[in-house]
Amino acid sequence: MSSRKNRYPYQAALIFGVPGAGKGTQGDILTVVPGFYHLSSGVIFRKLDPQSPDGRIIREYSARGELVPDEVTVRVFLNWLEAQRAARRYQPSEELLLLDGIPRNVNQCEMLQKYIDVKLLLHFVCHDEEAMIERIRRRAALENRVDDADESVTRRRFEVYHRETQPVLDFYSEGVVREIDSMQRPAAVLRDCLKSLVPVIEDCYPVD
Ligand code: AMP
């Protein structure tokens, strides 16, 4: 095993798209497949103690549908990632990091550049945002999320996505971006994700 690959930058694929596009569903499926390690910044944030100083800031911004300040986001994310690596739950020499929800603006891309090497960006394209808002409404009841319960907050998250997150697509080279139709059934989305992901893991982690 090459020790070099255990250090920064970690090889990564980004799962990217509007709220409700099914990124978490695909990440949850893929993370049980050997060779992938899924990490969602939103999930990390929801696991933090809401009474801790970081937890309080995160809850305040999330509840409004706004992005958490970059310094807090990147620090919490990197601490979490390193804890997973130290506990050997995430093994960079064998697993492609699948990031969902981060980086969320161009400044975060710059801050993370020395930590992650983006091999692929799966852009979950959605042509019907009202359908996504309906999905989110249904999810709110199941997951007890503060940011999903109120439709005006959901709409704010879409505005923030278009203004701050969409420019991330231009930060990475066109060659790493693949468009995935997120309106398909989950099995078809999974098939399309794997079509792009398998060559990346074959290339990054060749069998000896
Ligand atoms: P998500 O589950 O990815 O939709 O994230 C839920 C909320 O957590 C977002 O609306 C933001 O308030 C916050 N959040 C998650 N990831 C980030 C990030 N990379 N940068 C800033 N805020 C984030």
Word description of this protein:
This protein has a single domain (10-204), classed as 3-Layer(aba) Sandwich (Rossmann fold). The protein has nine helices and five strands, in the order E-H-E-H-H-H-E-H-E-H-H-H-E-H. It has helices spanning 23-30, 41-47, 53-64, 70-86, 106-112, 129-143, 151-165, 168-171, 186-204; strands at residues 10-17, 36-40, 96-100, 116-125, 177-181. A five-stranded parallel β-sheet has the order 2-3-1-4-5. The longest helix has 19 residues, at 186-204. It is globular and about 50 Å long. Adenosine monophosphate (AMP) binds at residues 19, 41-42, 45, 61-62, 65-68, 73, 101-102, 104, 108, 147, 157. Adenosine monophosphate binds next to helix 2 and helix 3.
**Element pattern in H and E:** EHEHHHEHEHHHEH
- Low-confidence segments, given as residue ranges, are none
Q: What is Rg? A: 17 Å
Name of the level-1 CATH class = Alpha Beta
Structural class: alpha/beta
Give a quick account of the main beta sheet: strands, pairing sense, barrel closure. 5 strands, parallel
